[in-house]
Amino acid sequence: MVDQAPHPGGSTFAIEFWSDLGCPWCYLGKHRLRTAIARRPDAGRFEIRVRSFELNPAASREPETIEQAFIRTHGGTAADVLRGEQQIQAVARSEGLPFTLDRLSANTFDLHRVVQYATDQGLGFEFFSGVQDGFFSGDLDPYAPAALAAAAESAGIDGRRVREILAGDEYADRVRADRAEGLALGATGVPFVVIDRRVGAPGAQAVQVYAQLLAQVAGPVPVERAS
């Protein structure tokens, strides 16, 4: 990606957000990015498009505790996992975000397939964001088909189609293609944000960093609204 001059004032910008459901830094990064956008008077010019990126394609399809999943993949002890979770929880809460430690972990491939369908309906980011927020607040079980169908309906998506998709293998190729594309663009993990295919940033950046990236492609925020 090469930095260029900002587009003319009436242009719109696609923000591609590679993410995975259970990634706490994706959860934080998403809200920081949205905050940076909301602070601009031209916020309506930006469209966030969620892109699929499984952090652990080999994850168990049966839900297990965060501790079990982490230790099986990375080693360590339950105390290590709890300490890391508490540190991220403190960051999230300092930014006004709910963050329960009582979460389960499982393979997210099927969720990503539903996200691809939601994207076709023009509601991919809205659906994914709602599911992820519910997951981290402890209000939604993303591994239960009925819960995903209900979340889809809340986002304006056909819950019956969601159940059909979960029962089959539709959109599998697109999930894999999204991950491959992210890797090709330089992603080594998530979150990974690309704005207008010109600038990008790995990791959960600070709000101000996202604001600077937005300014690179869309121009600075007018002085009277910069605060």
Automatic annotation (TrEMBL):
InterPro entries: DSBA-like_thioredoxin_dom (IPR001853), Thioredoxin-like_sf (IPR036249). SUPFAM superfamilies: Thioredoxin-like. It comes from the Bacteria. Residues 15-214 form the DSBA-like thioredoxin domain. This is DsbA family oxidoreductase.
